[in-house]
Design goal:
The complex is a heterodimer. By secondary structure, chain A is mainly alpha-helical. The radius of gyration of chain A is 20 Å and the shape is globular. The two termini of chain A are about 20 Å apart. Chain B is of the alpha/beta class. In chain B, the strands form 3 sheets. In chain B, strands 1, 2, 5, 6, 7, 8, 17 and 18 form an 8-stranded mixed sheet that branches. Chain B has a 6-stranded antiparallel sheet with strand order 4-11-12-13-9-16, with helices on one face. In chain B, helix 1 packs parallel to helix 6. The two termini of chain B are about 30 Å apart. The chains are: A mainly alpha, B alpha/beta. At the A-B interface, helix 2, helix 4, helix 6, helix 7 and helix 8 of A face strand 10 and helix 8 of B. Strand 1 of chain A pairs antiparallel with strand 10 of chain B, so a sheet runs across the interface.
Chain lengths: ~190, ~550
């Protein structure tokens, strides 16, 4: 959205209502859309690690009629989140899992082999997590799946293409018809 | 150079202080509004307001570095990536926890009015009469009829949306049209009303979100991003509502970075003469004088200021002659309830993000119901269709899984109880002389815990919600208790209570300090009991009422 669009959109939403501090509103809108989020802070994850994470993510959430997880850069997102938000123990679990997948030849496997491998891992993690004692470590594939889902469905692609996103809906309709196949409304930040 | 003499000084610019500034300036007074933190300009400084989730490096989530920098804030949701800048720094402004107390503060112009939950409910006479009837704490010196016109007054300006329900325990107000229940809530509300004969009812929440335009403000745009600041002025905040009104009079001086270190008191005249201000940036001290002073610094901060003031007259501080200053700290205990799945309605959805949910008004210990504890609780909740988050715990990978998870899931519904906490003199704050904040002020020590009444009430708070949902046909009902420590409700109340007797209360029926009649305390510290409803609307009404009284008293030369 460029500045002109931003102005038109905001003006339309205000219904022509003159708002005090209007110029300030435009500044805020412009600033929000000018911001580029840095993806350089990936800790000690290498480019190869991120490429592998992209492929794992893209196997969990591949391109369908909407782009997949790799297009939404979930590999880099996972690296940032593991580095900045995980405790040491979870970081170790995640990295060991990544190494296991790498050693198992995930990068050179065919798409069908990758899917089969992750389906097996998914069953493993689900069985483990459902039976897990409180405080016991998480399964590495649960961590990967969780970060892939978060990274994808909160990405611009995930919000605006895989789901529907309106920054300012301007209306609340409490009960509307729904037809299966229609996508969900994405949340605001 | 800024003037040092005013008609009135207001300490604090949050919900209460904004109202004091508006009312006093509109009644002709020249007002100095002091705020300890930085300025946040309406719209211009809402830098994150329109960002999408993808515009945050961690998508709004917290990092370990943030947790290290905010050892208290990290205990609950306020620690996040989207509005961290609006929560006070635990490191700059520490306090002493005799027992665990979670204190979440907003130190900037507007205070917590920028980030508040906006639920706005009136107290009723069940609340104002409870202390006196049960012999708990002290009787409120006012009744519903005293505050009712002031609720009217503040609701009209603030913009409260809600439905008229005719429930005596939750009086109706001057509402804008309600934000309606969605189909899931409507279905369950109908069954609940039928099953419990109207005793338990789901009604639309009453948020301070406008559904009609107000002067200078657009109605809510259903973004549900209020805590980032609203570029439309869709919800009540100091910035959107009271500050522009005060500024429009031409009689307001707003001074950010102004930490009030003490109220100056003349022992011969028995009046406050002004306040001493420490500049938060330059550390310079300046005295400002005024005929009346309104303390609206937030519950614990107004009391902290009183404890530091006039200690040459009363060692325990201004307002301490009663012996109860600092005592009877309250909050609402919560984080307990139940949730479940609604069958059907698969062909129904909603559009727009409503910034509120439903409310179940109190029904316990009312209308003949009698429990083993005193008082009661209300529920805040909502129904919605599940989003992609459900995918984490579900089995599945691949394209079909992805496309399914991009669609809305089952309808779920849940409610969280907010319970009344009784006043208890053992729950108190004092000055800790051994710890200082960034500016050298000895910090508050907070000693507060819930008691037996809250423990007993909490069982009902959890089980009643499950019982209600099951009675209304909700499936897979599960109870939850996330644990509660005082302060988590961010509804601190008491410590400078109103009362009828200067021997047992700090403030009189008009929020005047008994020991200094030109000092008014109108934020949550004045509360004699907590009720179970969200308190901010009551602070607004009490502030407007006290401002009216103060100006009339000034005119009569009684101050």
């Amino acid at each position: 959205m460029d500045r002109r669009e931003a102005i038109q959109r905001v003006t339309a939403l205000l219904g022509g209502f003159a708002l005090a501090g209007n110029s300030g509103l435009l500044t805020a809108v412009e600033r929000a859309h000018a911001r580029v989020i840095s993806r350089a802070q990936a800790g000690t994850f290498t480019a190869q690690d991120i490429a592998l994470l992209d492929e794992i993510g893209d196997t969990i959430l591949p391109e369908t009629k909407t782009p997949g997880a790799k297009a939404a850069h979930v590999g880099a997102f996972m690296a940032v989140m593991v580095t900045d938000t995980y405790e040491e123990r979870e970081q170790g679990i995640f990295r060991d899992g990544l190494k296991a997948l790498s050693d198992g030849g995930f990068m050179t496997a065919t798409p069908a082999q990758r899917l089969a491998r992750l389906e097996q891992l998914d069953r493993e993690q689900k069985a483990y997590m459902d039976a897990r004692e409180r405080g016991a470590p998480a399964h590495y594939f649960r961590l990967m799946k969780e970060l892939t889902l978060l990274g994808y469905f909160t990405s611009e692609i995930g919000c605006t293409q895989a789901q529907r996103y309106e920054e300012a809906p301007g209306r609340f309709e409490p009960c509307v018809p729904y037809t299966p196949g229609e996508t969900a409304w994405a949340g605001h930040a | 150079m800024q003037a040092q003499n005013y008609d009135a000084i207001v300490v604090g610019s949050g919900i209460s202080g904004g109202w004091a500034a508006k009312e006093l300036t509109e009644k002709g007074l020249r007002v100095l509004l002091l705020e300890r933190g930085k300025n946040i300009e309406h719209v211009k400084d809402y830098v994150n307001a329109t960002k999408g989730p993808w515009e945050y490096l961690h998508r709004g989530r917290r990092t370990r570095a943030m947790e290290a920098a905010y050892p208290v804030l990290k205990r609950d949701y306020p620690l996040n990536e989207t509005n961290l800048d609006w929560w006070a720094s635990d490191q700059e402004s520490p306090y002493t926890e005799v027992k665990r107390f979670d204190w979440y503060r907003g130190y900037h112009v507007g205070g917590r009015s920028l980030m508040w939950g906006r639920q706005s409910y009136r107290h009723s006479d069940f609340d104002f009469e409870a202390n006196g009837r049960e012999g708990i704490g002290v009787d409120w010196p006012i009744r519903y009829k005293d505050i009712s016109p002031w609720y009217d007054h503040v609701e009209r300006h603030a913009g409260i949306s809600g439905s008229k329900e005719g429930m005596p325990q939750l009086p109706d107000g001057q509402f804008q049209p309600p934000m309606p229940l969605n189909c899931g809530e409507e279905l369950i509300a109908g069954r609940l009303k039928q099953h419990f004969g109207g005793q338990r009812r789901i009604i639309p929440g009453r948020p301070a979100n406008a559904t009609l335009a107000l002067p200078g403000r657009s109605p809510c745009q259903y973004r549900n991003a209020c805590a980032l600041g609203c570029p439309y002025g869709g919800y009540f905040s100091t910035q959107s509502s009271t500050l522009p009104a005060a500024v429009a009079t031409g009689r307001l001086t707003l001074k950010p970075f102004a930490i009030v270190t003490e109220v100056l008191f003349d022992r011969d005249k028995k009046r406050a003469t002004g306040v001493r201000v420490l500049d938060a940036v330059t550390d310079q001290t300046t005295d400002y004088s005024a005929r009346i002073i309104f303390l609206c610094a937030s519950t614990l901060n107004s009391t902290w200021l009183l404890l530091r003031s006039a200690t040459n007259v009363w060692p325990g501080g201004l307002g301490s002659s009663s012996g109860v200053l600092g005592q009877n700290l309250m909050d609402h205990h919560f984080r307990v309830g139940a949730s479940g799945r609604i069958e059907g309605l698969n062909d129904k959805y909603y559009t727009g993000r409503r910034p509120t949910g439903f409310y179940i008004p109190r029904y316990r210990n009312l209308f003949g119901d009698k429990r083993e504890y005193l008082r009661g609780f209300g529920y805040q909740g909502g129904a919605s269709r599940q989003g992609w988050q459900r995918a984490v715990a579900e089995l599945g990978v691949g394209g079909a899984f992805k496309d399914e998870m991009a669609q809305p899931g089952a309808w779920t519904i849940g409610g969280t109880a907010f319970g009344e906490m009784l006043p208890n003199p053992a729950n108190r704050v004092t000055i800790d002389p051994n710890k200082k904040d960034k500016w050298g002020l000895p910090v508050l020590a907070i000693d507060c815990a819930t008691g037996e009444n809250e423990r007993l009430m909490r069982k009902d708070m959890m089980n009643d919600m499950a019982e209600s949902l099951e009675a209304a046909g909700v499936k897979d009902v599960r109870t939850n208790d996330g644990g509660y420590w005082p302060g988590m409700g961010i509804h601190e109340m008491g410590t400078a209570r109103m009362g009828k007797d200067p021997k047992t209360s700090v403030l009189n029926a008009h929020n005047q300090v008994w020991d200094a009649p030109n000092v008014f305390v109108t934020d949550g510290s004045c509360m004699a009991s907590a009720a179970c409803v969200n308190p901010s609307l009551t602070y607004m009404a009490l502030t407007a009422r006290a401002a009216d009284f103060a100006v009339n008293e000034l005119k009569r030369n009684n101050l």
